[in-house]
Amino acid sequence: MPKHSPPRLADANLKLKADRESYDAELLQLQEELHDLQRSLRAARGRAIVVFEGWDAAGKGGAIRRMTARLDPRGLKVWPIGPPGQLEQQHHYMHRFWKRLPEEGTLAIFDRSWYGRVLVERVEGLAPKPDWQRAYREINTFERLLCDDGLLLIKLFMHISPAEQLHRFQRRLDDPTKRWKLTPEDLRNRSKQPAYEKAISAMLQRTSTKHAPWTVIPAEDKRYGRLAAMRTVIKGLHPALPPPPTHVDSEVARLALGLNLRLPHEG
């Protein structure tokens, strides 16, 4: 059995770009595939989680919007994760994520996640060193429990260069409709990029497992990053789910015949 090799930021090809002419058509195709997979997930009564982590301004929000655009909101929940509230701080840091696990037949997307303990809390000194060091084992155990229970877990890290990040910061400043997206923390974090890169590398090395691997998404080109993220989710869900059902439920058929409705021919 081949050994799992964790991904590295240095191996991501940030020169990859999506063809502008074919982008819209491929985006629509991938959205339709995801919609079919969501139907399969519901029919199989499965549960799935997609975790998004990444640099500030790496395009997590844009990728999530495209990914969910054609999904049924009744079987979907997007969780934007910020700092824990006062009540949440009184519990173990995993407590708020246990409460947000998807229900049967649904998909949950985490815009940032429990990995904050080994990223921002580590770099900003919000968690003591023994706590964030212990978190690698806790996270691996948490994810092992979820996967052993049948949950599908896909983890994406959106990667861009420091130069592209600064360019996107400037574009947000220049656009009145996007200035709200640029926070003081985004700007302050620029001076701590080496520390964040060290923390990210450790996270990938220590928490990318065979049952819950990380995928680094080259997102220097926004279009490419969105398509690559969707392809990765489809690749993770497709083998584990049966095709979406097309047959008529037996009880539906019985009641439909009682109303003199014509049943489709199923050859």
Question: Overview of this structure, please?
Answer:
The chain has one domain (9-258): Rossmann fold, CATH 3.40.50.300. The chain has helices at 20-43, 60-68, 95-98, 120-123, 129-148, 162-174, 184-188, 193-207, 222-237, 250-258, and strands spanning 47-54, 76-80, 106-111, 152-159, 214-218. It has a 5-stranded parallel β-sheet, with helices on both faces. The termini are far apart. The protein is 45% helix and 12% strand. Helix 1 (20-43) runs parallel beside helix 9 (222-237) and helix 2 (60-68) packs across helix 9 (222-237). The mean pLDDT is 94. The chain has 267 residues and is α/β, with parallel strands linked by helices.
Task: Provide key terms for this protein.
single chain; alpha/beta; Rossmann fold; 45% helix; 267 residues; 5 strands; globular; 5-stranded parallel β-sheet
Short description, anyone?
By secondary structure, this protein is an alpha/beta fold. The chain is built from ten helices and five strands, in the order αβαβαβααβαααβαα.
> How far apart are the first and last residues' alpha carbons, in Å?
41 Å
Whole-number tally of structural domains: 1
How much β-strand is present in the residues? 5-15%
Biggest sheet architecture: 5 strands, parallel
| Uncertain parts | none
The share of residues in helices is 40-55%
Walk across the major sheet and give the strand order: 2-3-1-4-5
CATH superfamily: P-loop containing nucleotide triphosphate hydrolases
Per CATH, the architecture is 3-Layer(aba) Sandwich
The residue-averaged pLDDT reads 94
Q: Helix-strand pattern, N to C?
A: HEHEHEHHEHHHEHH
Quaternary status: single chain
The CATH top-level class label? Alpha Beta
Structural class: alpha/beta
- The global form is globular
CATH fold call: Rossmann fold
Total strands:
5
Task: Please work out how many helical segments DSSP would assign.
Answer: 10
Radius of gyration: 21 Å
